[in-house]
Amino acid sequence: RLKEWARRGHEIGFHGKSHPWSKSLRQDEIDQQYLVPARELKAEFDLISLPFAYPFGDRLHAEREREIANADVFYCLLGTDRLSRQGESPFEMDRIELDFGLERYFFGRPLIRALRRQDRRFPGDRT
User: Fold this and answer.
1) Do 94 and 110 meet the contact criterion of CB atoms below 8 Å apart?
2) Would you tell me how many other CB atoms lie within 10 Å of the CB of residue 68?
3) Within 13 Å, how many C-alpha atoms sit on residue 99's CB side?
4) Would you say 41 and 12 are in contact if contact means Cβ atoms under 8 Å apart?
5) 50 or 83: whose pLDDT is higher?
6) Quick one: three-class SS letters along the chain?
């Protein structure tokens, strides 16, 4: 079925071999969970590009993330912590996680962060 979807123009993405929490992985586990199966998927379906969405939005630590970005396997690495900014590197982008509600991620979190930034700029103004 996946080959039929790809033939119809759908993009194939990757989410990990067994859905692990990324921050808990050692380097050999990163290879086993992400890099090796992603390379196999690209080869099987003759994919030029492959996006990666972290399981649970749990990004790798920064050093490991740079290594996986430089492995030339994925064209983007997507977490779920925030809304991505225009012009941001595709290896630093985030997506909206729908498991906990679109409203919270799309409206609530950015609004709360904006209010906190405003409070830091104008600490005495509480009107």
Assistant:
1) no
2) 20
3) 6
4) yes
5) 50
6) CHHHHHHCCCCCCECCCCCCCHHHCCHHHHHHHHHHHHHHHHHHHCCCCCEEECHHHCCCCHHHHHHHHCCCCCCEEEECCCCCCCCCCCCCCECCCCCCCHHHHHHHHHHHHHHHHHHHHCCCCCC
To the question of pTM greater than 0.90 for the whole model, the response is no
Residue 94, both tokens: 């985030």
pLDDT tens, 72-122? 999 999 887 776 677 877 787 777 655 555 555 556 666 677 777 766 665
